[in-house]
Amino acid sequence: MLNGAKILSGTDVAKEIRERLKKEVAEIRRQVPTLVPGLAIVQVGGREDSNVYIRMKIKAAEEIGMYAEHVQLPRSTTQDELLATVKRLNEDPCFHGIIVQMPLDSETPIDAHLITDAVSPEKDVDGLNTINEGRVATGDMSGFLPCTPNGCMELIKRTGTPIAGSYAVVIGRSKIVGTPMSELLKWADATVTVAHSKTKNLNLLIKKADILVVAVGRPEMVRGAWIKPGAVVIDCGINSIPDPTKKSGQRLVGDVKYEEALPVASHVTPVPGGVGPMTVAMLMQNTVQSAQRVARRLIEMEFRWCLKPLPLKLTEPVPSDIEIARAQEPKDVAVLAQEIGLIPSEVSLYGTKKAKVSLKVLQRLQYEDDAKYVVVAGITPTPLGEGKSTTLVGLVQALTAHKRCNSIACLRQPSQGPTFGIKGGAAGGGYSQVIPMEDFNLHLTGDIHAVTAANNLLAAQLDARIFHEATQTDQALYERLVPAVKGSRKFAPIQLRRLKRLGIEKTDPYALTPDEIRRFARLNIDPHNVVWTRVLDVNDRYLRKITIGLSPTEKNLTRDTSFAISVSSEIMAILALATGLEDMKQRLAKMVVAFDKAGTPVTADDLGVTGSMMVLLKDAIEPTLMQTLEGTPVLVHAGPFANIAHGCSSIVADDIGMKLAGKRGYVVTEAGFGSDIGMEKFFNIKCRASGKVPNAVVLVTTVRALKMHGGGPIVTAGAPLRREYMSENLDLLEKGLPNLLKHIENGLKYGVPVVVAINAHGTDTAAEHELVQKAAKAAGAFDAIVSNHWAKGGEGAAELAQAVIDACNRPSEFKLLYDLDMSIEDKIVRIAKEMYGAGTIELNSKVRDAIRLYTEKGFGKLPICMAKTSMSLTGDPSAKGAPKDFKLVINDICLSAGAGFIVPMCGEISKMPGLPTRPSIFDIDLNTETGEIEGLF
């Protein structure tokens, strides 16, 4: 210290840095309370020197308010296992920084360079990934700077010695210190020489250095006589040498002879207490910077997806749907997932064009604000088709690709019944489609098949239980239900739940009395009061009524039953209404499948099937990610029958969409059929279950449909349209307007703005459009827009998109139609009068008896899911327009306890459609040369 050299205390500087970082972490938490900067430290083996460093890092992280996790793996860890751990941490949003502690203490060979390169560059807070190293080498400091060199630079700056123009010598060329140190000095405008242990005349080279950084790994190699007077000396070495004066017999020294350097240099770092603490401080700083980047993205509410729309090549006349779909090459779904903010662990790829989305995204984004919520409904549909799905797709294309808003379409999965029957596909049409349309309209990811399997497993167990109870004594039945395994009997968890429902608190199978055994073992199902049926995802009229049990093995235990189409299964409704796995499990358990001979409901849980159904449905609860023709996201999920159930896509798909789209985004979902059926159930059943508040209704209409409601000629599928539909006819159109006006009125009763979308056709005239627009606005519609999305894609729906944006900016005044405390009959009356325009409601004695039973059994406060024709506001499908004060007859009623609603039946509602004389089957084929599916439309 003769010349007044200063000791550069890394300990003191690191403490200052930690104090600053502590304030920065507090500011992150203030701005985003749910965000805690997280650091993962991965260690293989248990070297004690590594453990010391890890404890230092964890202590520093805790001191500044960060979360640090020590991920310790055994010495037996293989390279692939370590890579899998790094991959998991890369995808875990809780961690903003990842380091792999070196050296790796493994029994198996592991390529350390491969491991450091496996750490995501966005989380590589050690700065060792080749990408981050390459950035430093080219002067790009936007990535993470390596910790030790960055700490050295901070210490040099603290000396006040100008770096620019200085001559710097770096002793050592390692990837971790020497090489990046030389790059940082170079880009700070120093003249840099990199030397090493084999450099000739090293002492003469060192003598010229204004700044000397030593990282060679040789104890006290650099002597004081080699150092230029007044130089800044940064000693990165840490070596253990013998010292009998120490209790351990060892002491730590650097690569520089410290006592000799002090009288010569202007500043010297001690060992320990110099570079080491700075390395840890820079690691903390990099991790906080990583968390700050995440926080900025969350804070900036103007955040937009980095989504690249696919351009359309519009053609006139508009080609067939399949030609348009095949002319567009979809983007890889993994790319789409990344564009909308999904992380790889939340996406399960099914090839390259569709993927399942994990419900884990809801947990990750649970504190994010929801997007605006828009539902698309229609007027009373006609055989002409109003293009509700096409309008929904076109609207989302316009919002995302043309208005540059985050926007997701949520659609139901089509059943194979209509695809092979007469309706055809449901992927939209023209230049507003979901692609690939073949995947969309067929198996997709197998959800409907999973529903079919779960439904039929329950049906099989139900009939098997009836058979076994009829052919066994109480004791024999009990012993088979609770079999002895290795001499001991044990209740399954689902059996313990049944005991609890019976009021039996015992858990020991040997402790039950004979009466308790009988009550537990016998469900006493009334074969004449079984409400559960088997399902199949095809239109098959001959399954509408069948007799089962005709085999001699069933001992004459026959009964009449039926099949329904898979999408009418209560399990499909549950899939659409469940908010998560546990909610789905509880709903499945509560499904009433039959009544016993005393009139008590028998549930799926009583039959012991709940867990097995969950196993079959565990993947089905995840929505499927697809895309529109313009490369914008679509979530396809569930497909409950709109007549029997509520006819909406799933709650989880909407929830995921609203979190991904964010506060300034939009989720556009669908309601089956018209406002009287789909929209009413969307509001009173789905929104009640989800707790979501809709911001706007888009009501789809067409000039052609309104003419039919005005008394136009009957339309037959496949037959040429009559002149009335092909040319201007204002009188006929005006007579049909009451149907549209009724649907507008229905939407307004919920306090939600209604935007009328006039789905344009080439035969419409400007005068017809103007007539519809004026009438809609006069009836209270927020706006009425002519949309040409079928012919022009999102561009043709841009005006509609703007109207939806404007409508969503209005404060929501949403209210439900009825209170659940109302009686079942009063709720039915409220819906019939308010939504349909009915004058009187007639309930037959069978329905009244069922209502009394449901009320007695505790189901009276469930919402109502009316089952009636979609083709009319009344119960008569031939009654068009907007009839008033008619009589609505409720001729049957059933319970969907798991789905959580009661279903009154108006007229004959078939749950199993039949094939027409000429179904679409005739047109669908596989081209065996190209592998393409033909005939879908």
List the helices and strands and how they pair.
Blueprint: E1 6-7, H1 10-31, E2 38-44, H2 48-63, E3 67-73, H3 79-91, E4 97-100, H4 112-118, H5 130-137, H6 147-158, E5 167-171, H7 178-187, E6 191-195, H8 202-206, E7 211-214, E8 232-235, E9 239-242, E10 250-253, H9 258-261, E11 267-268, H10 275-299, H11 321-327, H12 333-339, E12 347-350, E13 354-357, H13 360-364, E14 372-378, H14 388-402, E15 407-411, H15 416-420, E16 428-429, E17 432-435, H16 437-441, H17 447-471, H18 474-481, E18 484-485, E19 488-489, H19 493-501, H20 514-521, E20 525-530, E21 534-536, E22 546-548, E23 559-561, E24 563-565, H21 570-577, H22 581-590, E25 592-596, E26 601-603, H23 610-617, E27 624-628, E28 633-636, H24 651-661, E29 666-674, H25 675-690, E30 696-701, H26 703-709, H27 723-726, H28 730-748, E31 754-759, H29 766-778, E32 783-787, H30 789-792, H31 798-808, H32 824-836, E33 838-843, H33 845-856, E34 886-890, E35 892-896, E36 901-905, E37 925-926, E38 933-934
Parallel strand pairs: 1-11, 2-3, 2-4, 5-6, 5-7, 7-8, 8-11, 14-29, 14-30, 15-28, 15-29, 21-24, 30-31, 31-32, 33-34
Antiparallel strand pairs: 9-10, 12-13, 13-27, 16-17, 17-27, 18-19, 20-25, 22-23, 25-26, 27-28, 35-36, 37-38
